[in-house]
Amino acid sequence: MVRLMKADFYRLSQTTGIRITLLVVAALGVLSVFFETAITSGVNVDNDLFKETVWDLPHLMQNTVASSSILNYCFISVFVILIGFEFSLKTYKNSLTSGTSRLSFVFAKYVTELVVLILSTFLFFIIVLVSGIFKYGTAGVDLFSIFSEMLLSSVVMGLMVSVLFSLATLILILTQSSIMAAVFIVIYPLIVQIAQLITKSDVIKYFDLAGFTQKVGLNLVSMNESLPYLFVGVAIILLSLVGSSVVIKHKEL
């Protein structure tokens, strides 16, 4: 599994697509601070909450966590490079025929993806912080507290995006289509919104990944209230990984 992860990291480092993605992520961080803009999506966040948002350095991480759901779309390239190409070019068979188990293969892909998502999100926050320091200054600001918040937010956001990507991986393996998987990533928030409108069920909110991260950014959820979201997220990841390995097992090598 470690060998697969090393190969994936090396391939990413040599890919122009990931460099472009990181540049876009950095640009979004700068623009978010410069224009003091919150971009929202999801079914559980009231956009009116952003109208009274205070833009200064102490509130910067909170504001950008709440407005960073756009990163989901930037990270589609990570999904395509790490997983999409494997199945489009059928190169995943090389790993499986060399003795790697299906579950180990899928899990290695997921862990690599999660690490890249967390690091890329952390880069976004670093750019936001540096831009904020230039714009607002550091007078009376606890930078250590902000940095700690950045680390925690990067892990939470990376985990939530990885939930969506684990589902997309299952769809990719089922359909053998990177396009179908990418489209699913794009329309997932819409699917959740439609499900919410039709069912009127409170349970649907736990599948609203973007809405949850925005709520975290606005400090609208306590630790206890966050647990159901995290439980559902971890359950989706485990089921998707096991499901993906089962589907691969039934495919002809």
From TrEMBL:
Species the sequence originates in: Pseudolactococcus laudensis
Keywords: Membrane, Transmembrane, Transmembrane helix
Residues spanning the membrane: 20-39, 70-89, 110-134, 154-174, 181-199, 227-248
Entry keyword annotation includes Transmembrane: yes
Name of the featured protein: Uncharacterized protein
Keyword Iron found: no
Superkingdom, taxonomy of origin: Bacteria
Signal peptide segment: none
PANTHER family: INTEGRAL MEMBRANE PROTEIN-RELATED (PTHR37305), MEMBRANE PROTEIN (PTHR37305:SF1)
